[in-house]
Write a structure and sequence with these properties.
This protein is α+β, with helices and mostly antiparallel strands. The protein has eight helices and 17 strands. A hairpin with a 2-residue loop joins strand 6 and strand 7.
């Protein structure tokens, strides 16, 4: 019957249920499951409750190509490059070299011209900015395969993980920790902890660029940040980034405390689902996020021209 488990809460699932003499499929985020019922929130935001006795089959599923591209677009707006241009539906992005994802093309559709011409125009655009030509591709996509065939080198893959905020909240301590604050701008203390304080001026433009953004700081008794995080809300999505803990304060649950505050903050602003990006080889971080209900949505890699 069912091949899903309560531990899969937060994952994207496909459930085939019996309705009279018919079977009907529902695909979406698994928000709840016990011995008697399960609840799936579909793409329209509707919560569909199903009796376990009516389930004919169920499984965890990955994102469709369309869904992967849609989330890539959301993530691009959550990490906005200050210099950008459109080539058809390819979004060319530059940020003086600060982070690969802000300095690579995001293909959100076709380029509106043959691929050879598109890549030449990409090369010209990045050459004018003193940057290498990079394209951020969904791993396994047709463009990923085409660039591989042309000898474009791939950086290590990044796992894009998603979960429902309801599923995350159930696995975290209650928000409201006395020393956690969420502000609408990056404070000097927050910036000192972010990437070890390596924040060129362009970084602030990226961090504070989205319309709805929150910066969480967990401070010590002297009001110095010991853990930070950032959330961007766009429609139903909350993008979690910059979850960092001071080296001497790790493995004490501080990242969970920050994520709890950002989850509450995002839900108050209408978000229902969260995404984050983590190197696919970062097993400790992936284990933490899986324990909070996250599952892999898709992977991307930045490919650079040879």
């Amino acid at each position: 019957m069912s091949h899903i488990h309560p531990d899969d809460v937060g994952a994207r699932v496909s459930v085939r249920r019996r309705v009279g003499e018919r079977t009907v499929d529902v695909v979406g985020d698994l928000e709840f499951m016990d011995d008697e019922t399960l609840a799936v929130r579909n793409s329209t935001g509707t919560l569909v409750t199903v009796s376990r006795s009516d389930v004919a089959a169920a499984r965890v599923v990955g994102a469709s190509p369309r869904e992967a591209i849609e989330l890539e677009g959301v993530a691009a707006r959550g990490w906005p490059a200050p210099d950008s241009a459109w080539l058809g539906e390819w979004l060319l992005r530059a940020a003086a070299g600060f982070t690969a994802r802000a300095n690579a093309v995001r293909p959100l559709g076709g380029p509106g011209c043959p691929v050879d011409e598109a890549l030449e125009r990409v090369a010209d655009w990045y050459r004018a900015r003193g940057l290498p030509s990079r394209v951020q591709v969904v791993v396994g996509s047709s463009l990923d395969r085409e660039l591989s065939r042309r000898g474009w080198n791939a950086a290590p893959a990044v796992s894009v993980m998603t979960a429902t905020l309801a599923a995350i909240a159930r696995r975290l301590p209650e928000p409201g920790a006395a020393r956690v604050r969420v502000s609408d701008s990056a404070t000097p203390g927050w910036l000192r902890l972010f990437r070890g304080g390596d924040t060129p001026p362009v970084a602030r433009a990226i961090l504070e660029g989205p319309p709805v953004v929150g910066f969480a700081s967990l401070t010590d008794d002297e009001n110095a940040p010991i853990a930070i995080g950032r959330a961007v809300v766009e429609g139903p999505w909350a993008g979690l980034t910059a979850i960092e803990v001071a080296p001497a304060m790790r493995r004490k649950g501080h990242a969970r405390t920050v994520i709890s505050e950002l989850t509450s903050w995002s839900r108050e602003r209408g978000a229902r689902r969260a995404y984050l990006e983590v190197l696919a080889t970062n097993e400790p971080a992936i284990a933490l996020y899986r324990s909070l209900g996250f599952a892999e949505h898709h992977r991307y890699a930045c490919r650079e021209a040879p």
